[in-house]
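Q: Here's a chain of 255 amino acids. Please give me its 3D structure as C-alpha cells.
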Amino acid sequence: MSTPTQFKTGVQYGFFFDQTRCDGCNTCQVACKAWNNLDPGPGKMLRILQWEKGTFPNVRQRTLFAPCYHCANPVCIPPANGALIKESKYGAVLIDPAKANSTDLKAAWEACPYGAIAFTSDAPDSTAVKCTMCVDRLEQGMYPVCVMACTTRCLDFGPLDQMVSKHGSNMQLPDMPAPDSKPAIVFKPANLRKAIVPYDTAQALTLLGARPGMPPVYTDPSVVTSVAAGTTKDHPVFHAKSSEEFMVDTTDDTS
C-alpha cells in the first residue's frame, strides 16, 4: 500500500489538464461517479465535453476536462445565498447541504461561467451536485479520484502555485470563457494539426467527389468544406438547456 500524501493546508489547490493527451475515454468521469456513489444520469460532478473544429478534410475533435475549477474569485457564491462556500483548507468551492436549495443553486449555476453545478433532473426541486475537489480523499492523503483514474496521464493536481510552476500559467483554452473568475486550473492546449503525409487538398477533393460510371458525390467541393452554423457542435456547451441536452453534451448517456 502506498504511503499517504501529506497535503498542506491553507493554500489554493488546483488541477492541470493536458488537452494533447486526452482522448475522451470518460474513465475519470466514471471513476468520479463510482467514488461518490452517484446514479447514472445527469447528476455528474465531472464532465468531459467534446466538440469539433475545422471542416473536411481538416477536422479535429477537442475534449475538455470540466469539473468545478474551484475559482479563486468564485462568481457563483454571491447568487447562491449561502448554498455555496469557499472552504479554507484546500480552496474548494462546496455545496453547504444545510443551506442548499434548488433555486439558489440554479442561480449559482447560471452565474458560473463553466456551469459546474449539475442537476439530477429538470424538476424544480431536483438535487444538485458538483465537484468537491475530493476533499474527503485529500483528508486521507489521497489524490482526487479523477487524477488517479486517468489512463492517458493528462491530469495533475496540487497547490496551484506548483501547478503553475510545473505546467505554466495558461488558464484558458480556445472556445472557453475568459478566466475572470481565476479558475484554479492550468491548461496545455491541443497541438496544431500537422499534415504527416503532404498532399494536394484540391486534387483530393476532386477525386473524392468523382464516381466513374455513376453520378458524382458532388461537383462543388464547398459543399463538404463549409458547414452552416449550428450544423455541428463547434464549441463546448457549459450551460445545457435541459437534462437531455446535458447528457448529449457530456458525450455519453450511461454514466
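Q: Can you summarize the key feature?
A: The first strand starts at residue 13 and ends at 18.
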